[in-house]
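Minutes, project check-in
Item: structure for the 141-residue chain
Input as provided by the requester:
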Amino acid sequence: MLHVETKALGRRDALVPAFAVPPPESVLDGDGLTLRELIAITVRHELAAYSERRAERTFQRVLTERAVSDGLAAGRVESGDRRAPAPPGPDQAVGAALEAFEDGLFLVVADGRQETDLDAQVLLHDQSTITYVRLVALAGG
């Protein structure tokens, strides 16, 4: 699995919890992939995870005592949200991420090496660590 981390300048904590992305066959075969493909794979994986979380929140849930007490301890008890924003389409999300990279809003570090060229080969292995670093503060972020 490729291990993905997110960071932002000026913040100690991660933007989102670290997650794993299954590597494409080209990585396992030792061929690598382009930075453009790596960003697309990560965006599509996270978009699918967001859609799953959104679907879980859309339906009314019965709260157990433990869920209520955990929510109270965290400062927020959730029973579902029917107004969760719809995610963008996969192609739209990938396009926005690639545009953000080209505009210098974030950088990508793969196994300790900063990657700067979207069309250059990124050599990874199945235990590589990919770090996305947000360089610009975003509204609400």
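Outcome recorded: Residues 2-53+91-134 form a domain with the Ubiquitin-like (UB roll) fold (CATH 3.10.20).
No further action items on this chain.
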